[in-house]
Each structure stands twice: as structure tokens, then as C-alpha cells.
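Deliverable D2.4 — example input (C-alpha cells):
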């Protein structure tokens, strides 16, 4: 199980600070992994209960945004200063994590179609189903169309993915993103805790000087 997760969330070498999972860190945090599974189970239960496509899209996008915030909180001690700023929205949070180059870009890039589909639902009252949104989305330039991108992105995690149902793909991609953000947030937390320890910081500085 752990090994399959490691392969699924491995990024490109040197693409980010963490370009692969630390298996021992995952194993050490068994309780936290259990918490993640419980969180994902809650999302799945909500998915099963939600027949409203618009509600599902908004719920999934909010779940991703919440996980982005949790990761940023673990990296930026005074993160609350940012969320009090006007205009610090979903896109700002994505771009901040991207700019930090903390975790594999493939996780963050997979958020884009989720966000676009959410936005189409939010700004078009007549769009009540994924089919409606897909028709609106098809009018965009080919490179910007969310649905083809969404199907492509889920295969960056699961190469042999075959399911073509847009609603299911949207939900499953959300789950993959949420899981990836959760796991890498643990790595970010450990790193931040380490470097903010004065003794460890001193060791790092001394090592840099010696080189």
C-alpha cells in the first residue's frame, strides 16, 4: 500500500524540494495516515449522498482549497496574515505553493481543471450538471478545456485509468489531490519543525560554512 502511494506521488527529480515521499516518515505517522483515510472516507460518504452536480463540484473544490491552506499553515508560521488580505483566493493559494516549490508540480497542476469546472458551475446558473459544464467548457480554446485536462491529469497518478465518466473522474481526481496534499503536508511540517529548531539551524549554517 505504502509503496504504491510512493510511486503514485513521485514527482520529477529536482522539480520540487520534496520530489518523492519519505516512506519511513509515512510509516512513522500511522495515526496521521489513519486520520487521512478517515477524512477521505468522509468525502466518499458525501459523494455518495450528493446527487447535485453543482454541490459536488463546489464541495470538492473547497476540500482541495482547505488542504492547500493546511499545507501552507505548516510552512508559513503567520499564514493568517495572508488570508486576511483581500484577493487572496483559491488561485493565490495554488500559486503560492507552486512558487514555493515544496511538493511535486503534478499535484498542483491537477488542481487547475477542478478549479475551472468549479468556476463554470459558480458563474453559470443554468449549468446544473457536468454535461452542461462540459458544453460551456468546449467553447474555450482547446488548451484550456478542463475536461480533457482532467482526464489527462488523473492518468499522471494512475497511468492505466480507464473510467470515462466525468463526474466520477472529477471526484476521484479530487481525492488523489487531497491525499497528496495531506501526505506532503506531513513532510513540510517535519522540515519546518527541524529548521526552526535553533540547534538544527546552527548545524545547517556551520555545514554551509564548512563547504
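Example output (designed residues):
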Amino acid at each position: 500500500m505504502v509503496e504504491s502511494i510512493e510511486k503514485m506521488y513521485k514527482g520529477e527529480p529536482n522539480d520540487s524540494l520534496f520530489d518523492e515521499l519519505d516512506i519511513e516518515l509515512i510509516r512513522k505517522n500511522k495515526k496521521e495516515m489513519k486520520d487521512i483515510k478517515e477524512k477521505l472516507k468522509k468525502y466518499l460518504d458525501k459523494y455518495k449522498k450528493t446527487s447535485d452536480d453543482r454541490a459536488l463540484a463546489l464541495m470538492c473544490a473547497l476540500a482541495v482549497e482547505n488542504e492547500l491552506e493546511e499545507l501552507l499553515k505548516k510552512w508559513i508560521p503567520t499564514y493568517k496574515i495572508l488570508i486576511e488580505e483581500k484577493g487572496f483566493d483559491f488561485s493565490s493559494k495554488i500559486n503560492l505553493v507552486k512558487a514555493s516549490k515544496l511538493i511535486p508540480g503534478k499535484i498542483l497542476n491537477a488542481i487547475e481543471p477542478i478549479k475551472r469546472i468549479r468556476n463554470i458551475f459558480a458563474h453559470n446558473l443554468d449549468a446544473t450538471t457536468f454535461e452542461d459544464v462540459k458544453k460551456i467548457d468546449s467553447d474555450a480554446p482547446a488548451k484550456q478545456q478542463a475536461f480533457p485536462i482532467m482526464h489527462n491529469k488523473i492518468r499522471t497518478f494512475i497511468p492505466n485509468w480507464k473510467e470515462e465518466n466525468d463526474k466520477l473522474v472529477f471526484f476521484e481526481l479530487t481525492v488523489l489531490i487531497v491525499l497528496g496534499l495531506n501526505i506532503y503536508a506531513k513532510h513540510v511540517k517535519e522540515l519546518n519543525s527541524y529548521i526552526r529548531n535553533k540547534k538544527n539551524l546552527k548545524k545547517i549554517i556551520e555545514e554551509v560554512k564548512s563547504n
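The first helix runs from residue 2 to 8.
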